[in-house]
Specification:
Blueprint: H1 12-19, E1 22-23, H2 28-31, E2 91-95, E3 111-121, E4 130-134, E5 136-142, E6 145-151, E7 158-168, E8 171-180, E9 191-197, E10 201-209, E11 212-220
Parallel strand pairs: 2-3
Antiparallel strand pairs: 1-4, 2-4, 3-5, 3-11, 5-6, 6-7, 7-8, 8-9, 9-10, 10-11
Length: 221
């Protein structure tokens, strides 16, 4: 479930939603990705909105902002999917022109994780330039169940999710069974991605189109 529980379909509405992402990349293949239900705001005129519009607040309807992106009491979620506390903070996603590393999989250890860094591999933008800002994301893994809470990077909107995941080799598939507030159009399609897992961290590799791959690192708490 997206380690970023929540990321998929060329980014699906859930990917950027799970990150609470505010995109600012000029990379054409990356910036054409959909904006999220988590209240992202995009500087790219080619971005398409998935539910809340690329320059407006998300389907949660929040008009508040969060400079740190870590508040768990912001408008949006009613707590229907889980009762997790937000432990994370927002962080920048950076571009690199290097090719993405080969994912190797691994055993996913039960526990609580916080998204701590992200990078867009295979970018045509300047090395080290900023792709966007990810909102705060905390997730809990219990067996094949994942729960998460995300806080929009600019909107401060809180979204809670719950679902199941499976792995095979380095392949990762996640299916959401609950999203609060509910997204327009119902639950998103399952997420297909690559992943790495160690006893202390997880990394999810999500295709953005073309050569671009978004890697998000989660630290076990």
């Amino acid at each position: 479930m997206r380690f970023a529980f929540f990321f998929g379909a060329v980014l699906s509405t859930a990917l950027l939603g799970g990150l609470g992402l505010a995109a600012c990349s000029s990379d054409s293949s990356a910036s054409s990705s959909s904006s999220s239900s988590g209240g992202s705001s995009s500087s790219s005129s080619s971005s398409s909105s998935s539910s809340g519009g690329s320059s407006s607040s998300s389907s949660g309807g929040s008009s508040s902002s969060s400079s740190g992106g870590s508040s768990s009491s912001s408008s949006g979620s009613s707590g229907a999917c889980n009762t997790l506390t937000q432990l994370g903070t927002s962080f920048d996603l950076l571009n690199t022109q290097a090719a993405a590393p080969t994912a190797v999989g691994g055993a996913v250890v039960d526990g609580t994780y916080v998204a701590v860094s992200g990078k867009v591999w295979g970018s045509s933008s300047a090395e080290g330039s900023k792709f966007g800002t990810a909102g705060a994301l905390t997730l809990k893994v219990t067996g094949t169940t994942m729960e998460s809470i995300t806080t929009g990077a600019t909107s401060g909107v809180v979204t809670r999710r719950k679902g199941t995941y499976s792995v095979s080799g380095a392949d990762y598939t996640a299916t959401e069974t609950c999203v609060d507030p509910p997204p327009d159009g119902g639950l998103p399609a399952p997420t297909q991605a690559k992943y790495d897992a160690t006893p202390t961290s997880m990394t999810l590799y999500l295709p953005l189109g073309g050569t671009n791959v978004l890697a998000i690192v989660y630290a076990k708490q």
